[in-house]
Amino acid sequence: MMASIPAFASLNKKLYTLMQGPSEMGASGKLVNWDRTADLSKITVPTLVIGAKYDTMDPAHMEKMATLLKKGRYLYCANGSHMAMYDDQKTYFEGVVKFVKDLDQGRF
């Protein structure tokens, strides 16, 4: 299934499994207890955090991350999954383009 998505064509499965574990439904690899939440406030560049309704990553957690960044912005893809750039393209790309335009015009 992963091979049908172009982004996964070159995936290093051995490394990915080592870090994430064998399942997307629950981390069990080297990253299972890795938490950098306390460091988010140290990131000073404008950052777009994207969450999606059908993602395995909790959209509420992604939104919270955006609030912890000094210049964070949150984009919610109501029809998206972890690959919202494919399954909620309109929302995803409109949000990314707006973010880039706001950067270009100094709106941060």
Task: Describe this structure as you would to a colleague.
The protein is of the alpha+beta class and 108 residues long. The chain has four helices and two strands; from the N terminus they run H-E-H-E-H-H. Strands 1-2 form a two-stranded parallel ribbon. Helix 2 links the parallel strand 1 and strand 2.
List the defining traits of the structure above.
single chain; 108 residues; alpha+beta; two-stranded parallel sheet; 35% helix; globular
Strand order of the largest sheet: 1-2
Report the radius of gyration as a whole number of Å.
15 Å
Q: Low-confidence segments, ≥5 residues, pLDDT <50?
A: none
In N-to-C order, the SSE pattern is HEHEHH
Number of strands: 2
Mean pLDDT, to the nearest integer, reads 89
Helix/strand structural class: alpha+beta
Report the major sheet.
2 strands, parallel
Strand content: 5-15%
Describe the global form: globular
Overall helicity: 25-40%
Distance between the termini: 39 Å
**Count of separate DSSP helical elements:** 4
Short description:
With 108 residues, this protein is of the alpha+beta class. Helices cover 35% and strands 11% of the residues.
SSE arrangement:
Elements: H1 13-20, E1 47-52, H2 59-68, E2 72-77, H3 84-87, H4 89-104
Parallel strand pairs: 1-2
